[in-house]
Amino acid sequence: MPQLEFYPICRKDYSTLPKMLLALGIGVTLMHLAFLKPLIWDLDGNEVLKVSYSLVTDQSFSLPPGSGGMLGPDGQSYSIRYLLLPILVAPFVAIGILISSWLGLPWISTTGIFAVSSTVLLTASTTVLVALLALKLGSTKQGAYVAALGFAFGTIALTYAQTLFSEPLLAFLIIACVYLAFDESRSWIGCSLLAMLSILAKPAGIIVGPIISIYFLSKRYQISAILGPIIFPALGILLYLTYNYLRFGNPLITGQPLSVGLSAFEMPQRLLGFLFGFGMGGGLIWYCPPVAMAVVGFFKASKSKPLEAAVLAEIGLGFLMLHSFWHCCGWDWGPRFLVPLLPLLLALTGLIDYRSRKWLVALCIVGFIVNAPTLVSFYQRYYWELEATGHQVWQLSLWTNIADAPLSNVWAATFRQISEAMVTDVKVFLAGSDSVTLMQILPVWWWILPAIGVPVWCGATVAGLLLATGIGVLWRGWPKLEPSAPSI
Question: Does the entry feature the keyword Transmembrane, yes or no (predicted)?
Fold first, then answer.
């Protein structure tokens, strides 16, 4: 009589889960700190920084004199950016102000690096949540780990972790909200609060609350849980309207140029452009190759957890369609407006089986190669070069020729910035000379250390240690392959 072989039931072993999550958070943070940008180039980030400065120094949302913005009824200028990010960044800016006074430097010289570090921490936290959500959807620990690394290093999250845009904050809030919604403990209060904060981070977050409410209704939760994701975001809307009134004297005025957007006629073209366009603000599939595998993960999730898969699909389609009505996009690297969807999409890739995971890893490597130059340069460098030579940057929007796309020119532009940085005296730039621009220095913290009398090699050595330690932490956190029964 043949002997029967018994295979262990594939239960998820969470005994090493804290180690895995800690490795993701610490590893991603250390690797980003090695390339931390000390200064902010874009208009959005600088306005957020200045509002945070005003919150710290004057307890006001107004911009410092001479900082631009939009004039309010009280005669002060106000930023047209969103509410939550300046509040979150304010403690980091306060640290930068203290450091600047200690070193005897202008506050703008030291606060940028601390402000950007807040986005690094948000991205690292989001990376951890990608792994947690993947596990919640039914992934193995190794699959969740690969999915989380794919988000952190294989998509434009790698680029925007070094900026001060609202999208990384919104990405963190949305995946945290979804994770709590899927939690068996039914933490609807925390979920509803995060749905409210999503609106304060960026009004586009308004689509999250109703979708979560419908999900709770489908799960037949108590009435308070069903109404929570509606009532809390409604309070967020009231807070935002109050914020508009305090800034501009009218709750319906946001300062955003609505006249250049909201066109239904070109909506299908822009929707496809967000996914497949090569130009400015488009090309999700090109700038974030691992998301292509999310389709496979979605079909797996729809079989085992159909309601949860429907929530992810509804949020994704909602964001995509909402921004497809919007005609305006600035000097973006890939589809910046879709950054909040990346954690949800990458969490789905965690469901891919072990044999097919090699394709996900390959796409993550391609994504890293595409986005890696932005670690040591400003992604806007190529746009800056075009504008300097008299070209119309707006011609690159969404459906430009692939030869002219930022995707095809970023490596060459990065090498040019590095070459110019090698012959540029960073002290001249920090002294405020008009002969040197931010695009002519290397935008990493250790490159500007000579301004305070510290050699570049000292900082580069520290950056190398941070990078090596981050890689080592991620390597040590790699989970073992979990057992599974053979196919019968």
Answer: yes
